[in-house]
Write a structure and sequence with these properties.
The complex is a heterodimer. Chain A is of the alpha/beta class. Chain A folds into five domains: 112 residues, no CATH class; 142 residues, von Willebrand factor, type A domain (Rossmann fold); 87 residues, Immunoglobulins (Immunoglobulin-like); 179 residues, Rossmann fold, CATH 3.40.50.880; 73 residues, Macroglobulin (MG2) domain (Immunoglobulin-like). An eight-stranded mixed β-sheet of chain A has the order 19-18-20-21-27-26-25-23, with helices on one face. In chain A, helix 1 runs antiparallel to helix 2 and helix 2 packs antiparallel against helix 11. By secondary structure, chain B is an alpha/beta fold. Chain B folds into three domains: 34 residues, no CATH class; 245 residues, Rossmann fold; 44 residues, no CATH class. In chain B, strand 4, helix 5 and strand 5 form a beta-alpha-beta unit. The longest helix of chain B has 24 residues. Classes of the chains: A alpha/beta, B alpha/beta. At the A-B interface, strand 2 and helix 11 of A face strand 9, strand 10 and helix 10 of B.
Chain lengths: 651, 337
């Protein structure tokens, strides 16, 4: 630790030390006190008034205190500075740009060993960073979630607002969007301010490849709170009286255990059971749902670190406002239509492939499904697409042949849409062999004697994501298997998940269209927090609205308000926060953030010495003032004895 | 008392003002009260139980209230005695003669008055206090003198007060009647303590100047007075048939000077009378030696006073008139109940 002197000329102030010593070397007249009786006082040996003008420096408390005070002030005048280890006692030499990256992923809901949420502990850490703010500094807080948000402050008032903003925020949840968070950090760094980056996380975020020094503050132990059990997925199978729910449970606890689960509709238990779960594994259980149920909550009965993801809500009631809007383009709707229509909250509109203006029809849809057809290159809808054995689409795929009865080849089981989907033993029948562009991502492939063919793949067309199946449900045995609706449901989730069946995903946004006369949308979460989004309003046409969704599980309500504040319509959505990546607390999936641009320039600045120095002169001035006060007090106490005498004079 | 009560009624709201058309007595009374010399009502109530010790030095007079052992002509009947030639025939009780056929002369009790003198030391050393919270010694002397004067005047004794500063001052008195306590107090309050006359010299001058002896209260701090000085002075006054009561006023800091300064650094003491200075410090050993020297001096003074039958009473400046001072006076039999 080196000490730097920013104003060495201030050393001239040390001359005052000599001056003080010289002043003390002068003889001073002793104090005079009037006292009526001199007769009985013995004479004390003393220096006479005729003694020499100078004397040896008297070592007295007064002299020592004066020298200390002068020394402290002289050193303060030299502006000593040292690295930022003593920031709390000194004033930093240079302003810095604080960038605080706060992990807002779902796992931040987990409890620490003392029962507090990681999120609360993290916010306290952020408060501590905010406390180091000084005039000239900038502060930006980036909350890393599926839909990252940020807020900045450049003065004291704004810093206070920043504190209030943070204090009111629930955990946004979701898996942090690496690119979006990195871009926000990059945009927060300024070329003329040294960066000071603090990453507050439970271990799910890192910054391993950046040039700037990052202060990483870890909150919550990975395996704290007794581990975690979460319902990470629910799939609705069947229709009407044959409807059932399959729930997937992730077990992130050290030992195998058998845990009870319960499914409730309203106040009644409709199913209960137990499930044996191995450490680090996931298992599924399934139960039937009586006809007429609108909403079912399935929960694990367990005490763990993240109780919010112990349950999940499945809503069967379609919501006109937030429900899944599906446009099915099919000349022979069959199994695909049936599966789509039983998706919770889904509204399916079927159009023949010859219908003109599909693009306009699909404008407000959450998903467009082509069953046995494909859009023309000039007629690609502006929405995610699911294509089932599509026809050719130029620049995307072509049918290069037919495989008479391929067998299953490679399957990417880690892909979200393939979770719990088995293609083993499926008779595919005659299957087209699609020729895909290089950027297409094959999820499942098949083969016959002569060729390998893609069975399921994904890609983008005109910037719209799609998933395509080469399998024909009508000709294969796949539609008869439980895996088929599971695959369709998971694919729909992957493509239009945030609006599927009125289900919102924490950390993301919920987007839907509202009538033009609506001027505000009110969102109330299950804990009663109210968010109002103002809209510009349009003349008749619908307008899109995007609402933030945080990790508060339960049913959220949405109200559409007109100009007079009257609620013209309302809707609901459910939030279940179970997520495979976030539920694994012991070995969290790490999102590595990176940034460059201005940030790297700032990083160079941060390596320079001056930016990290903290000036100590305020501390020294304080010491000087304290010593002077002490000296004054000592002098006062000493002189009180003389002042008590009427007619007495000061020594 | 009416004057005092009137003054108290006016105090303190209008003190310092001269009331328009106000009576001169009011102004005087206020002045006396302003100086804080007059005893308060409670103390006066207590004082009524006491009188100056008659055995000290009574003097014949007409209006005194002290009972005398002497018998003579007076309105107050005491006893009969057989007539002897030379007796005043006007004192023969003819009724007794008619009854007993013997001449008897009426004997009356002669009431006496006391000449009470106050010699108050107003040297510069008396204008000193060891603490702002305490009154200077001169003020304490004024208050004690006024209290004793009230006691004497209430018995219609004759009171004379003289202050001693640079020299023996003009005497004020004799005063008689309890209303004169206010002029007495005002006289004292007008006298500033600023002089250096030795009190023992002043006592001798005073005794020689008076044609008639009496009871002499000397209120002083006895600073600068040696045992020899005191002995010489008391001897002179005894020869002149004066009864002397010495009241030594002392400040607690004189008794224990350790609180003079909070440090043990060297400083100079300055005698307020002579202006002489002496370099001292408050080392415990120094303070101890001071106390020992002072105690020896006081012991010598006590010895002289005892030998000369002059009560020597020490009064601290933080003492209360009632009961501290009254108790000390009673214990020394200067006042009796």
């Amino acid at each position: 630790m080196t000490l730097a002197w920013l104003f060495p000329l201030g050393a001239l102030g040390l001359l005052t030390l000599g001056a003080i010593v010289v002043l003390h070397m002068r003889h001073r007249m002793p104090g005079i006190v009037r006292f009526p009786q001199l007769a009985f006082w013995p004479r004390v040996p003393s220096e006479s008034r005729e003694s020499p003008r100078w004397r040896k420096p008297p070592i007295s408390l007064l002299l020592i205190l004066q020298l200390l005070a002068a020394l402290a002030l002289a050193l303060a005048f030299m502006r000593p500075a040292m690295p930022d280890v003593a920031g709390f006692i000194g004033q930093r030499a240079d302003a810095v740009q604080h960038v605080i990256v706060l992990d807002g992923s779902t796992s931040m809901l987990a409890r620490t060993d003392d029962g507090r949420q990681r999120w609360d502990v993290a916010r306290e850490e952020v408060e501590a960073v905010l406390d180091s703010w000084q005039q000239g500094d900038g502060v930006t807080i980036v909350v890393a979630s599926g839909n990252p948000t940020w807020k900045k402050a450049v003065d004291g008032t704004q810093v206070d607002e920043l504190r209030d903003w943070l204090a009111d925020r629930p955990v946004p949840g979701g898996v942090p969007d690496q690119q979006a968070v990195s871009a926000l950090i990059d945009g927060s760094l300024l070329p003329d301010l040294a960066p000071s980056i603090t990453l507050v996380t439970d271990g799910g975020l890192t910054m391993s490849d950046v040039d700037v020094a990052v202060d990483v503050v870890l909150v919550g132990e990975p395996a704290s709170g007794g581990g975690n059990v979460a319902i990470v997925d629910t799939v609705v199978i069947g229709d009407g009286g044959n409807r059932s729910i399959r729930a997937t449970v992730l077990h992130d606890r050290p030992a195998t255990e058998t845990l009870p689960w319960v499914a409730r509709a309203g106040d009644a238990d409709i199913a209960t059971g137990t499930i044996t779960l191995a450490s680090g594994e996931s298992e599924t259980f399934e139960f039937g749902v009586p006809d007429g149920m609108e909403q079912v909550t399935v929960s694990m009965v367990v005490d763990d670190a993240l109780p919010e993801d112990d349950g999940a809500i499945v809503s069967f009631a379609g919501d006109t406002l937030t429900g899944l809007s599906v446009v099915l383009v099919s000349d022979l709707p069959g199994a695909v239509q049936r599966v789509l229509e039983v998706l919770p909250g889904a509204r399916v509109e079927v159009y023949p492939s010859t219908t003109p203006g599909i693009v306009e029809i699909a404008a407000g849809a959450d998903l467009v499904v082509y069953d046995g057809s494909a859009p023309s290159p000039d007629d690609v809808p502006n929405a995610p697409m699911l294509l089932v054995q599509p026809s050719d689409l130029d620049n995307a795929w072509q049918i290069g042949g037919v495989a008479p009865n391929p067998e299953v080849g490679d399957i990417r089981l880690d892909d979200p849409i393939m979770r719990d989907v088995s293609l083993e033993g499926v008779l595919f029948g005659e299957t087209p062999i699609y020729v895909l562009p290089p950027e297409a991502e094959v999820i499942a492939s098949g083969s016959d004697e002569v060729a390998t063919l893609p069975l399921i793949w994904r890609g983008t067309v005109n910037d719209q994501p799609y998933v395509a199946f080469a399998i024909d449900p009508a000709r294969s045995s796949f539609a008869d298997r439980v895996s088929f609706p599971v695959l369709i449901a998971q694919t729909v989730d992957a493509l239009a998940g945030q609006t599927a069946g009125g289900r919102a995903i924490p950390g993301e946004t919920m987007t839907f269209d509202v009538p033009g006369e609506v001027l505000a949308v009110e969102l109330v979460d299950p804990e009663g927090r109210r968010t109002v989004v103002d809209l510009p309003g349009t003349d008749g046409a619908t307008q899109p609205v995007t609402l933030p969704v945080s990790a508060v599980p339960g049913q959220w309500t949405i109200g559409l308000l007109d100009a007079s504040g009257f609620q013209v319509d309302s809707g609901a959505m459910t939030v279940s926060i179970g997520d495979r990546a976030e539920a694994t607390l012991s070995q969290p999936d790490v999102v590595d953030l990176s940034f460059d641009g201005v940030g790297s320039q700032a990083g160079e600045q941060s390596s320079s010495e001056s930016s990290s120095l903290v000036e100590l002169w305020p501390l020294l001035v304080l010491v000087g003032i304290a010593v002077i006060s002490l000296e004054w007090w000592a002098w006062l106490a000493r002189s009180i004895g003389f002042r008590r005498m009427p007619g007495g004079t000061q020594p | 008392m009416k004057l005092i009560e009137r003054a108290r009624r006016l105090w303190p709201e209008r003190i310092g003002e001269t009331p328009a058309g106000g009576r001169r007595d009011d102004v005087k009374a206020r002045g006396a009260l302003a100086s804080g010399l007059l005893p308060d009502e409670a103390t006066i109530g207590r004082l009524r139980q006491f009188s100056l010790n008659h055995g000290l030095r009574p003097v014949d007079g007409l209006v005194g209230e002290h009972r005398s052992r002497r018998r003579g002509a007076a309105p107050e009947f005491s006893d009969y005695s057989p007539y002897t030639p030379g007796d005043d025939v006007r004192r023969i009780d003819w009724n007794a003669y008619a009854r007993f056929d013997t001449l008897y002369v009426r004997e009356s009790e002669v009431t006496t008055e006391l000449d009470v003198h106050f010699l108050v030391d107003m040297s510069a050393s008396m204008n000193w206090s060891g603490s702002p919270e305490r009154q200077p010694k001169a003020q304490m002397a004024r208050r004690v003198a006024t209290m004793l004067a009230w006691l004497a005047l209430s018995r219609t004794d004759r009171v004379t007060v003289t202050s001693v500063a640079d020299e023996l001052g003009e005497s004020f008195g004799p005063l008689q009647g309890r209303a004169m306590v206010v002029p007495f107090a005002m006289h004292l309050s007008d006298r500033a303590a600023d002089g250096s006359e030795l009190i023992t010299d002043a006592m001798q001058y005073y005794a020689r100047r008076r044609s008639r002896s009496g009871l002499l209260f000397v209120l002083t701090d006895l600073i600068g007075v040696s045992a020899a000085d005191l002995n010489r002075s008391l001897s002179t006054l005894a020869n002149e048939r004066w009864q002397v009561v010495l009241m030594q006023i002392e400040d607690p800091t004189e008794v224990d000077p350790a609180g003079l300064s909070s440090s043990q650094d060297v400083f100079e003491l300055e005698d307020p009378e002579s202006g002489m200075r002496q370099r001292v410090n408050l080392h415990p050993d120094i303070v101890r030696r001071y106390r020992e020297g002072r105690a020896a001096w006081l012991e010598e003074l006590d010895g002289v006073a005892r030998r000369r039958s002059a009560p020597l009473i020490r009064i601290a400046t933080d003492a209360r008139l009632d009961p501290d001072v009254l108790l000390a006076l009673e214990r020394a039999q200067v006042i009796v109940s």
